Amino acid sequence: MLIIMEKEIVYYKTISDNKTYNIVLSGVTDKNPFFYNSQTKSKYYVFEFVVTGKGTVCIDDKSYFLQKNDFYIIPANSNYEYFTEINDPYQRFWFCAEGVLIDNLYKTYFKDKNIVIANRDFSLYFKKLFNVLKRSDKILIDEYDIPLLIHEIFLTAFNNFCLTECFYSKLSKGAAASLKNYICSNFSKPFSLQEMSDNFCISKNQIINIFKKEYNMTPHMFSTLYKLDMAEEMLKRGTSVKETAQYLGYSTDKYFSSIFKKYKNKTPSQLKKNR
Q1: Alpha carbon distance 72, 66 (integer Å)
Q2: CATH superfamily, region 3-159
Q3: pLDDT value, residue 170
Q4: What is the pLDDT of residues 158-171, one digit of tens each?
């Protein structure tokens, strides 16, 4: 069965009731800058390959940057969400599967990993799968083609595994933009390079290098200047020094005032008097 939706083609829906394995859904998601999907405790394994473009997948509060030729497996019973980069939306090949065969292969190759990411062109495997699913000879599908293909995918992923506990991130504009967005979204919290490292599964040194390459400053400096620019606008609009400091996550008014003076060459009170 072929289902065509906006920006997405679903090649097949439930090919087998076999408890050993079952391809529940598979298809192609085309370049859609507004693509977003999330699942809570999904009972299926998700296999996806990024053909072109960039995106992010988040599992258990950790974010992983994805780009062309990244293949990933999300295990069953995971909470996850993923979305594409607006300026460079990705095209994905994907399928969702379940069954004892897949459970056993995942445990054998990857044990308790919460995500598997490999950097290699997996498009041939997905094209083979789509071709098999479109065939009418279901007996041959059940007996041979799909199990063999699933074994090949797991073995290739294992041989190209790019993850220990954390996924490496390439030095790219997409990764830098994701880091910048994270800082801007968490402006009210004290800056923590360790927290960013934990969330993005990138080493602290990698974060600094990625950020400096794109923005010519450290993440900490960007966070400081971003918050002080917000503070300046708030103070000009009449917000009190105390309220501004609290809103932006500074521990005390005094500390906020000292940082503000260091970078703005005047205290918050002086700015308010001169506005």
Answers
A1: 9
A2: Regulatory protein AraC (2.60.120.280)
A3: 44
A4: 877 654 334 444 44
